[in-house]
Amino acid sequence: AMPAPEPGVKGFLLRHRTFLLLVALVLQKCVTDVLTNLTRRTSTYSATSVALLSEVAKFPLLIVAVALFGGGWKRVAPTLRNTVSDRPFSLVWVSLCYSVQNVLYFLALSHLSAESYQVLSQSKLLFTAGLMMGIMQTRLRLEQWSALGMLIGGSLLVQLSEASRAVVAGGNAYLGGLWAILGSLLSSLPNVYYEKLLKEKGTDEWARNIQMTFWIFLWILASMCFEGNGLRIDLSGFSLNVWLIIALKALNCLLIPATLKYADNILYSYAKPTSIVLTCALSSIVSGTLPAPRFVAGMVLVLASIYLYNSPAPKAKAA
């Protein structure tokens, strides 16, 4: 007999956790991008300090994540021991890529609208495909190659649409596009390598997550020294919205493990295009203007590319 569903709030959360995670991912992505774009255009603050504080906030959140999703509070101490003993230096270069990508995120949104950044950032699919072929020995189907071509075309249309808008706003659309695409490359490389590590037998994903956060934290500290400001955290220009951005970016360390445990990669396929469409719609409502035709065409191509790339392979016919 099938076990009876658990009653109450916990039962509701367990029954609908895939949908709830999708909602959480979409809202977190949309709100973070919109707030970052707004604050970077209306005030001046240190993106490095924001990145550093978001990493600091991740440490207690990761401990909570281990307790909630990794086996309970009894798993916290063993996970911390694995963090120190299980190849602690294996993610040094990976964390450097993430650290640089965090800075490029703020640079890109200083020049691009939130919806344009989201569309252009989907170019990571192109980089991910190439890296998976080289690192994971993954073979792509014809439909997936077609999807990559659509992605490139859509990104170019979005960039052409953004160029005229950014000049009026005082930004540089081409520079912002460069930062967005470079950031996509620097996030794709560690993502593929991290997937390879997770597929190794006996890997403690929580220990790896803590290691990653620790090394990103150290790299950001190093960048602060390189900038000549020492280890002083610059809080000038920080508003309530900036603190909200820090909290939202820190939530990545909870949303991603929860998604990997309770859902699958299909959830990401839904979350990405949904966040793009929602952000574009919200921006149009707030500004009272319709998106440019080239932007809409580019967005449609990118959304179609994501759908086509993630479509399941046709089943082989029985002999």
Question: Can you describe this structure?
Answer:
With 319 residues, the protein is an all-alpha fold. The protein contains 14 helices and no strands. Helix 6 runs antiparallel to helix 13 and helix 7 (124-135) runs parallel beside helix 9 (173-198). The mean pLDDT is 78.
Mean pLDDT: 78
Number of helices: 14
Structural class: mainly alpha
- End-to-end separation in angstroms reads 37 Å
Task: Summarize the biggest pleated sheet.
Answer: none
Query: How large is the share of residues in beta strands?
Result: under 5%
Radius of gyration: 20 Å
Tell me the series of helices and strands, N- to C-terminal: HHHHHHHHHHHHHH
The count of β-strands is 0
Helix % is over 70%
Oligomer: single chain
Outline the low-pLDDT stretches: none
General shape: globular
